[in-house]
Amino acid sequence: MTPDSAPSLGPTPAEASGLRMQMETGMSALGELAVEARSDDDLVRATCVLDKQDRAGDVMELGTSEMLVIRDPNTSEQARGFALEKLDAAASRIDKLVEEAKECAGQTGPEDEIDITRNESDEPNTVPMAAPSLGLGQSPVPPPVDGGWPPAASPIE
């Protein structure tokens, strides 16, 4: 049996610590963005960044509980593996929140292209508009043609 084909001993605390470090790095980046957003006068950006920071704080709490499961010596290998998967997902989520917060703060990288779509046309306005202050005089639009039929709700004689 080669070392490569040996059964896995489960998640190692080093893997979990690396993920935890990645999460903490993301949280510190969010903290810096939040401080920067608060110093700006743009309340919309500040609110957006602070919302991402709050969400990341909730994800961090989940990651902390999973770290406790991984480090507990009485936990089964299956539970540790599942906790490591959840910790990996939490680290990915925090990275995504950092990117979203950078977009809120207007700090996207130069490789990110902002696509602005415009909908403009040079067609003239073909619907005539009657001035409401003129009263019921001559309207530029003729009245609708009535076919001589009574309204549907009225009785027929």
List the helices and strands and how they pair.
Elements: H1 13-39, H2 43-71, H3 77-104
Helix pairs in contact: 1-2, 1-3, 2-3
Region (Disordered): 102-157
Keywords for this entry:
3 helices, 157 residues, disordered N terminus, elongated, single chain, mainly alpha, Single alpha-helices involved in coiled-coils or other helix-helix interfaces
What is the name of the CATH architecture of the domain at 13-104? Answer: Up-down Bundle
The largest sheet, given as strand count, sense and whether it forms a barrel, is: none
**Count of helix runs:** 3
- In N-to-C order, the SSE pattern is HHH
CATH C-level class of the domain at 13-104 is Mainly Alpha
Which percent bin holds the helix content? 40-55%
Shape, principal axes of CA atoms:
elongated
Q: pLDDT average, as an integer?
A: 77
Short overview:
The chain is mostly helical and 157 residues long. Helices cover 54% and strands 0% of the residues.
